[in-house]
């Protein structure tokens, strides 16, 4: 039995590296686990929008670092990678009977709808899971920032950021440091904890009073736990 949800409309950010699991690009076990959890929450009547990263296929900034090629082109490939992940998630959820729509930040009309804010909200109200592909549609941004932007646009009550680790570590997770339970937006930015969440994204969430929960997506049941407001991972807010 699932707990009573604390939030009615949520924006779930899934990092690309989480989808990779033990596979090279996408681990079917991970996508099915995520799809099952989302299906359960969808049945509770929680409105779910999703932003997925793309690093499991392509990371713009590391490509630029190793080749010296221009960032804008590399980022376009990165954004298309996020659309591939979006389609995979969509297919996995539809396989479980969840109604979904993918909306892309730039037109890919044969593959998905274009992003239209009011239409996205309408889908959510009808109980469909909306997956936003293509990040913000702009190079030099991240899918964390896309998550903060779309969450602000659709009035989501929280950004749930699912990752490979248990939350925000003060320092290097490999050093076995404890997870921070709670941190303010300001302290998060001051400490430069950008490996856990992009600082631009945190700033946007702060401006729009949207709390962020960073948690481990590989632990079954964690999305529901995060939703029910249980202490899980790291809460970033005022
Ligand atoms: N990207 C972009 N603009 C955006 C979102 C993403 O240019 O608004 C590109 C960028 O190259 C980035 C890649 O898409 O490296 C994948 O996104 P991100 O690194 O945020 O994915 P994640 O780390 O969550 O897998």
Automatic annotation (TrEMBL):
This is UMP kinase. Belongs to the UMP kinase family. Residues 9-216 form the Aspartate/glutamate/uridylate kinase domain. The lineage of its organism: Eukaryota, Viridiplantae, Streptophyta, Embryophyta, Tracheophyta.
């Amino acid at each position: 039995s699932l707990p009573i949800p604390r939030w009615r409309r949520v924006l779930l950010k899934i990092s690309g590296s989480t989808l990779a699991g033990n596979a090279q690009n996408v681990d079917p076990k991970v996508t099915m686990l995520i799809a099952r959890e989302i299906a359960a929450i969808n049945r509770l009547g929680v409105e779910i929008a999703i932003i997925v990263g793309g690093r499991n296929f392509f990371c713009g900034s590391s490509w630029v670092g190793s080749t010296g090629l221009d960032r804008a082109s590399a980022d376009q490939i990165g954004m298309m990678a996020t659309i591939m992940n979006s389609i995979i998630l969509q297919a996995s959820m539809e396989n479980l009977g969840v109604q979904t729509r993918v909306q892309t930040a730039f037109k890919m009309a044969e593959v998905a709808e274009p992003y239209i804010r009011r239409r996205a909200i309408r889908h959510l109200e009808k109980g469909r899971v909306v997956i936003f592909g293509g990040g913000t549609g702009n190079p030099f941004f991240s899918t964390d920032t896309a998550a903060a932007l779309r969450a602000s646009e659709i009035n989501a009550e929280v950004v749930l950021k699912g990752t490979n680790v248990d939350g925000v570590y003060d320092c290097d997770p490999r050093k076995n440091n404890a997870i921070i339970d709670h941190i303010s937006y300001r302290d998060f930015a001051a400490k430069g904890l950008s490996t856990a969440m992009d600082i631009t994204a945190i700033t946007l969430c702060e401006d729009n009073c949207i709390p962020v929960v960073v948690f481990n997506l590989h632990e079954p049941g964690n999305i529901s736990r995060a939703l029910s407001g249980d202490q899980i991972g790291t809460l970033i807010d005022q």
